Automatic annotation (TrEMBL):
Residues 28-351 form the PBP domain. It holds the Pfam family PBP_like_2. This is Unannotated protein. Keywords: Phosphate transport, Transport.
Amino acid sequence: MRISKLAKVATLALAFGLVAGTPAYAVDLQGSGASFPALLIEGCKAGFAASGSHTYVYASSSSGTGQANSDKSIGDFWMSDGAYTAATKRASLIHVPLVAAPIAILHNLPSKTTLSLSASTIAGIFGGTITRWNDPAIVADNNRSTNKVVYKLDANGNPRKDSKGNPIVLRTQVVQQHYTLPNKPIKVVYRSDSSGTSENFTNFLNKSASSVWTKAKNKVFKDSFPGNINDTANLGRVVGAASSTGVSQLAGKTPYSITYAEVNYATANKLKIANVINPAGTSVVPDSVGVGAFLASATQDANGFLTYDYKTMEKGAYPLGIVSYLLADTAYPDKTKAAAVKAYATYVLSSKCSKDVGAALGFSVIDGELLKKSLAQVAKIG
């Protein structure tokens, strides 16, 4: 009799322990969209699960897919590298600036010398008017004196700002550049799918070099191309590939090629990263410091949309810094799911994700006034 009672007590205790170990409110979130923030989102998955009871999976594809899935409520959250303003957007959907990083110009030149390119030169290369690596414009960009800016940094590694929100410069150094460019044709690799990366890249080209890149931004690169992308001079020399993975892999296999993608795709594909010469005449590395200096000049509206100042004269600004937005709902039918999405967004913005994981992957920390605005958007999820 006593053994039987003890067994029952043990059985009840075990059952209670199993139930207690698996909270009823655990939610497995489903996300999809832009490939730009995918490595950070994947990198923070284990930490998010360990911080609470929720988990998530993220299907990386493109901003266009994320936007389309948000229209149909496929999954629970979506990522887009550009503001989503289509007529099909649900009224309850909001934008949260969630992930910051540079778009990098990646190239496959044999030299170890750092390549520097101005906006007008980049526009000429990707627009098909600069077709050889020893073109005078590229030679001029790489045989000149430029500035190197050193900022006072905060605990997150981002530039400290003064009372007006301007980054604090510690010192500026003059750097003499010299690069002998090869007499080889340039192989251009562009994103063929609908992409927020392409939308931001073509916006930079149009706003920074409008006399060269004459068409407005577009999520589809070929629809923003200023000339005839199918011209005989471009056939076989200007080619497309889907996703950041696709363009970087193709460029990695193609000598003397150039493309645009996230910084973290360079190493895996043995590509080199070019500096961008900003309007202040500084040759800037695509890192968190340069992105932080650039985002300091951005303005944000009530929807959470950012407007970038591509003409900023901030000396150390990297003008191809962008933010990837979380698209989330303010009226989820399941409020438990809404709380889980809110927890996800808060975690990605935290230093445990954005700094501890993101720094090694080439992402930037969203902080200061922009972080306050992002968290205010997060608070609307419900």
